[in-house]
Amino acid sequence: MRIGLQINQFQWPGGEAEIGATLARISREADEAGFYSLWVMDHFFQIRGLGPATDPMLDAYSALGFMAGVTKRAKLGTMVTGVTYRYPALLIKAVTTLDVLSGGRAYLGIGAAWNEEEHLGLGVPFPPLKQRFEMLEDALKLAHQMWSDKNDAPFDGQHSHLQRSLNVPQAVTKPHPPILIGGTGEQKTLRFVAQYGDACNLFLRLGDDEVRRKLDILRGHCETAGRPYSAIDKTSLNSLLIASKNTPDGLSAQGLLDELGKASELGFDQAIFSIRNDSDPGVFNTIAAAYDQIAAIPEGGRK
């Protein structure tokens, strides 16, 4: 069982002046504790459920570039970039740059976008859902083209039209950085995962039965697409409180192992979670103490 850390808030002690230092420390400690992947949200405002829109929110790709410079092993990606936020070719260029500069550690995390408030707030067009899914499929097809030997060819999608899809330097990761498609939609999102993606992500808060049902639907889409279900990295997303000196009532190392074991039993290959007290000193010591046992948990999708 591989583990990933999602950093989804930057409201840390010390305010704006300490965000950089705190993000660097958390990234380094997670990397050293054995996390397989590190993720940031791609939003312009903080999202409902995590805090007011006025809470600090960093530009995702600037943050990932910064994190790449202070880590050595962990893969890096957004959970996830809304397809409306950037022209798709420029998004693929940004992910390629991250992959090159990090030595092959980038993910492309992408989805159809949902947060209308931040689009309207910053003047970013927010087309209807049908168009956003068309844009998403364009971006996925374009990513495969720009990360292939056809990367200098024209591209003519439903909404994206490129005279020359040039992408130099090419990504270090071969055949390309893994593509994680966010969302749980059964007719389009999970079908896109089977057709174009390398990873999916499901919220554990959906409940065990619903998670199993979604994975079964993904399995069916893989069969239709003629693609092995095992080729898709099944990732979960959850929020945890981890024991530390400041938070003694958080999950112990054994409690974390129990959570990861449950995710494995549901069929996940990688458990990604945010840590609500991620800036607490000692949080990653708790995780590192359990790392050898975490690494021994079988990957759920390959039992």
Structural features, described:
With 303 residues, the protein is an alpha/beta fold. The chain has one domain (2-302): TIM Barrel, CATH 3.20.20.30. It is built from ten helices and eleven strands. The protein has helices spanning 16-33, 60-70, 88-102, 116-122, 129-146, 189-196, 208-225, 253-266, 283-289, 291-296, and strands spanning 2-7, 37-40, 75-78, 81-82, 108-111, 155-156, 161-162, 179-182, 199-203, 233-240, 270-275. The strands form two sheets. A nine-stranded parallel β-sheet has the order 3-2-1-11-10-9-8-5-4. A two-stranded antiparallel sheet has the order 6-7. β10 (233-240), α8 (253-266) and β11 (270-275) form a beta-alpha-beta unit. α1 packs parallel to α9 (283-289), α2 packs parallel to α3 and α6 crosses α7 (208-225). The longest helix has 18 residues, at 16-33. The chain is globular and about 55 Å long. The relative contact order is 0.14.
Determine Rg (CA atoms, Å). 19 Å
How would a textbook summarize the main sheet? 9 strands, parallel
Number of helices: 10
Helix/strand order: EHEHEEHEHHEEEHEHEHEHH
**What would you call the structural class?**
alpha/beta
Give the low-pLDDT segments.
none
CATH superfamily: Luciferase-like domain
Oligomer: single chain
Strand content: 15-25%
The CATH architecture comes to: Alpha-Beta Barrel
Number of domains: 1
* CATH fold field value: TIM Barrel
The level 1 CATH classification is Alpha Beta
- Percent of residues in helices comes to 40-55%
**What is the count of β-strands?**
11
Biggest sheet, spatial arrangement of strands: 3-2-1-11-10-9-8-5-4
N- and C-termini, Cα separation: 11 Å
Q: Any idea what the shape is?
A: globular
